Amino acid sequence: MEPRGRGRARLAGRSRLLTLLLVAALIIAACGSDAEAQPERDVTIGLGYVPNIQFAPFYVADALGYYKDEGLNVTFRHHTVGEDLFGAIVAGQEDIIFAAGDEVLQARSRGLDLVYVAQVWNRYPVGLIVPADSDIQSVADLPGHTVGIPGKFGATYIGLLAMLKAAGLAEEDVDIQSIGFTQVPALLENQVDAVMGYLNNEPLQLEKAGLPVRTMAAADAQPLISNGLVVLREYLDSNPDDVRAVIAATLKGVQYTLDNPEEAVDLSKDYVPGLDSEANAADALAVLQATLPLWQTSGTMGETDPAAWESMAQFLDEIGQLGGPVDVTEAFTNEYLPE
């Protein structure tokens, strides 16, 4: 038989152990209840075009759980052709939209309090496209030639005006023709001498159709802020953590796509109809490969250049694309980027 003192000591030790185990169980239960009390926050991201491989970073971020890791339940809302770019975000149907800096300044000049919070495309994607054997060697050679554009709107029109201005030319110096979104057949059939298009799209289609081409980038003529994440100021002030989370997850999607383009195409198959076709997947990979240089940056991913914003605003004002004064410093911020 054990001495009474030793038995009591063992009972006390067991009691302390049971107490510690009970406290640990209560802590674990409390942590579990806290997690259950914080459901994923719903966020709708507007993508200004039909499902397309050019939105791969968003699809990748969703497919790999980057948004969920940030506590978000993300819905993508793709716009229909002709839909007002900012109509849905103003109506409360979208929380964040993918849009270009020039579009933000134009909207702000009309009174929309939009804020550009992270840059995704680091190079403006449009340019002049000419047949490889064309006598148009530079923008300065355009007088006396016809240039096809979808119309006097959007990135292709802004890009053309930037290139003309940098070359010391005006619209009146060139025969500009509105041809709708028919740049490829128009150039193939010699209806125009040159077209404005997206450098990751029309040149690939023309080369595939058998017409070698040369391109001249609008970004080389004028600083222009391309597509990034945009929110209304009211939403930004009310949901700063959600904005940070969307930016962080999306930029992870960008980096993964840059590093793994073939896997990005595979991951996008659940989001882009038709990618199950081997031919369509090959075309999508070609577009994606041509898009990667437009996303790459030698600086901080997501960061936007204040000097470029100032230059772009001055340019847009000079060509009459702003409806009124714009405070450029209120149009963008780098404060919500990952540290």
Any overview of this molecule?
With 339 residues, this protein is α/β, with parallel strands linked by helices. The chain folds into two domains: 45-123 and 226-330, D-Maltodextrin-Binding Protein, domain 2 (3-Layer(aba) Sandwich), CATH 3.40.190; 126-220, Periplasmic binding protein-like II (D-Maltodextrin-Binding Protein, domain 2). 44% of the residues lie in helices and 16% in strands. The chain is built from 13 helices and ten strands. The protein has helices at 4-36, 56-63, 66-69, 87-90, 101-108, 154-166, 183-188, 202-208, 233-238, 240-259, 261-268, 278-295, 306-318, and strands spanning 41-47, 72-78, 96-100, 114-119, 126-131, 146-149, 175-178, 194-198, 213-217, 227-232. Helix 6 links the parallel strand 6 (146-149) and strand 7 (175-178). Helix 2 packs across helix 11. The longest helix has 33 residues, at 4-36. Residues 1-37 form the signal peptide.
Beta-strand content estimate: 15-25%
- Total separate domains: 2
Rg is 27 Å
Mean pLDDT: 91
Instruction: Fill in the CATH topology of the largest domain.
Output: D-Maltodextrin-Binding Protein, domain 2
Order of helices and strands: HEHHEHEHEEEHEHEHEEHHHHH
Based on secondary structure, the structural category is alpha/beta
Enumerate how many helices there are, as a single number. 13
What does the largest sheet look like? Answer: 5 strands, mixed
* Overall geometry: globular
> Can you identify the CATH superfamily of the largest domain?
Periplasmic binding protein-like II
CATH architecture of the largest domain: 3-Layer(aba) Sandwich
Question: Which residue ranges are poorly predicted, with pLDDT under 50 across at least 5 consecutive positions?
Answer: 1-30, 32-37
Strand order of the largest sheet: 2-1-3-10-4
| C-alpha end-to-end distance | 65 Å
CATH class of the largest domain: Alpha Beta
